[in-house]
Design a protein that fits this description.
Shape: elongated
Number of domains: 1
Number of helices: 0
Strand order of the largest sheet: 1-2-3-4-7
Number of strands: 9
Strand content: over 45%
Order of helices and strands: EEEEEEEEE
Length: 95
């Protein structure tokens, strides 16, 4: 996921996973950045026994905050609450 000029973008390099789009801004707490994004989840396909189960694609809204002043190379662990359950992630500011 890339944050640049107020926009959030991201795509699984293989094109098989979710893609992301949205925006970021200063949160109510001025030391935090607020992320508002939509995760575009592709259709899923599983084979259970001899039955093919196909899930429909969907869009999932996701919101979270993180420290606005990240030092270069510093890793910040975060927990993101979503409709499907929590996600643990790391944010790193690249040089």
């Amino acid at each position: 996921m890339t944050l640049q000029d107020g926009q959030v973008r991201g795509l699984n390099p293989r094109g098989t996973g979710p893609s992301y789009h949205g925006s970021y801004r200063q949160a109510r707490n001025s030391r935090q950045a607020q992320i508002d994004l939509i995760a575009d989840l592709p259709a899923t396909r599983q084979i259970i026994g001899d039955v093919i189960v196909v899930g429909t694609p969907r869009q999932v809204p996701v919101q979270f905050t993180f420290p606005a002043d990240l030092g270069t190379g510093t890793r910040w662990p975060i927990r993101i609450e979503t409709q499907a359950g929590p996600i643990r992630a790391e944010i790193t500011r690249l040089p």
